[in-house]
Design goal:
It contains 23 helices and two strands. It folds into two domains: about 180 residues, Growth Hormone, Chain: A (Up-down Bundle), CATH 1.20.1250.20; about 200 residues, MFS general substrate transporter like domains (Growth Hormone, Chain: A, Up-down Bundle), CATH 1.20.1250. It comes from Mythimna separata.
């Protein structure tokens, strides 16, 4: 046996110790999967969106026989849709508060039960009151919670691929929405009204499969190494916008152990809070009221979605008043869907460049396109040009409807996304309930669809002007803050 050189063995031991030290010195962080189980979550979102929203456009076809059977008035039908909007808005708004009481999957399961009860309940309903309960309340509450949770889960699982996957999900949902009227028409011919409602109720049970796929993102987070430069930057970065990201800033006073002004202010504020305010904060994230609720990011999409919904409901009647045939009206609605679906496909293809252009900027372009296409439609004198503008309206609808979760995700921190989406849903429901009757009154008072459409166009135009102004003002404010931070850091270095 040859004896080992003690110097070599000592060097080996030193190297091993250095390697272990390096491993201990390395820092790691958990990041979103951006794939893996996230693809199954995307499928669950397609299921959720399709079962809860795809058949909204076939409302009249599905319930026409029941409405005629009980001799329900137009005001009663309008009230059902109003209750549906308000129920969805309120349940979506309180989703963030409900997540404090139960886990995400249990809440999604409860919402799925509620929605299934609403869809299957329509099979046995016999009165107006049951119609309000099953369609208005049960389906509305289930839809609001499931929509908010689906957007939240997608936001948690995807960061770099968020635009690509969300565009794919919305494209698949759009295809299902286009197939839904064909399916309902076939089902009504084969099985009648009750059989069709039973089939749609059965499809809604697929939400339970979606809930099973919605696993918490913590189970699938990726562990990545933090580079030294990034680690140092995270520790020393001073950014006034840091409140939005909930990232603590290490300052000299923190290191010395003395409280900062912000900590003292928070301590005094917590003591002064009334019981009522504490109860309110359980249900509402008050930190979002001033920076988010009163911004164009919340008000703009809510108002534009409301105007979009009212527009598509009134347009067929406008076409009939112009003497269009049923085939031309059907073709126009098909082209609207084609424009919407085409834009969803385009978003999927160019998803890599959307972040570079800015999601809010693209959303504003969509609003401008909505204004121009609607004005062009009103000024058109032929069926062909009207259909061209109507197709562009479908493309504008895609950017207005599809990009809302992405606009919200770009604006708020991930922890506040559910609450922010809830605020958007609440505003949409409130605007739908309040603005809808006003637009209808303008149409009845003037006896002209054009006056009602110009009123809706003014709502789009309002945010097409205000939103860019808000972005410019905020960017200038951030530049001033950055300059002040640079000056203060330069002075600190001198001292």
């Amino acid at each position: 046996m040859v004896a080992e050189d003690p110097k070599k063995s000592l060097k080996l031991m030193e190297k091993e110790m250095e390697v272990t030290k390096e491993k201990k010195m390395k820092k790691y962080k958990y990041v979103a999967p951006d794939g893996g189980w996230g693809y199954l979550v995307a499928i669950s979102t397609i299921i959720s969106f399709s079962t809860t929203t795809a058949f909204f456009g076939t409302f009249g076809m599905m319930y026409d026989e029941f409405i005629n059977e009980i001799s329900m008035s137009s005001a009663g039908v309008t009230l059902v849709t109003g209750i549906l909007c308000i129920s969805g808005a309120l349940s979506g708004f309180f989703t963030s508060a409900l997540l404090k009481l139960m886990s995400m999957r249990w809440l999604a399961f409860a919402a799925s039960v509620m929605f299934a009860f609403g869809t299957l309940g329509t099979v046995i309903m016999t009165s107006t009151f049951m119609f309000y309960i099953t369609v208005g309340i049960c389906q509305g509450v289930g839809f609001g919670i499931m929509f908010n949770l689906s957007c939240t889960v997608m936001n948690d699982y995807f960061v770099e691929k968020r635009v690509l996957i969300m565009s794919f999900v919305q494209t698949a949902t759009g295809i299902n929405a286009m197939v839904a009227p064909i399916f309902v028409k076939w089902s009504l011919e084969q099985y009648g009204s009750k059989g069709t409602l039973l089939l749609i109720g059965g499809l809604s049970l697929h939400n339970f499969v979606a809930v099973l796929l919605m696993q918490p993102v913590q189970w699938h987070m990726r562990k990545v190494e933090v580079p030294e430069s990034t680690e140092l930057k995270l520790l020393l970065e001073v950014n006034n916008d840091v409140k939005k990201l909930d990232t603590p800033v290490i300052t000299l006073t923190d290191a010395e152990g003395s409280p900062t002004k912000e900590e003292l202010a928070k301590a005094f504020e917590s003591e002064e809070k009334s019981c009522f305010r504490k109860v309110v904060e359980i249900f509402i994230d008050t930190s979002l009221i001033k920076p988010f609720l009163l911004s164009c990011v919340a008000l703009g999409p809510a108002m534009c979605n409301t105007a979009d919904g009212l527009y598509i409901v009134m347009v067929p009647k406008y076409f009939y008043s112009m003497g269009w045939s049923q085939d031309n009206v059907a073709m126009a609605i098909t082209l609207y869907g084609f424009g919407d679906l085409s834009m969803r496909v385009i978003f999927t293809i160019v998803s890599k460049w959307i972040y570079k252009l800015g999601i809010r900027n693209i959303y504003i372009v969509g609003i401008v396109l909505a204004v121009l296409s609607r004005i062009g439609m009103l000024w058109s004198s032929t069926v062909l040009t009207t259909m061209v503008y109507f197709t562009l309206m479908g493309a504008a609808h895609c950017s207005i409807a599809v990009l809302v979760p992405l606009v919200v995700a770009e604006t708020v921190a991930p922890k506040k996304f559910t609450a922010a989406m809830g605020i958007c849903l609440l505003l949409s429901g409130t605007f739908s309930f309040g603005i809808g009757p006003i637009i209808g009154a303008i149409r009845d008072f003037t006896n002209s669809y054009s006056s009602a459409f110009y009123s809706l166009i003014s709502l789009y135009a309002l945010f097409a002007v205000l939103w860019p102004i808000e972005i410019i003002v905020k960017n200038r404010k951030l530049r001033r803050i950055a300059v002040k931070n640079c000056e203060s850091s330069h002075l600190n270095k001198q001292f």
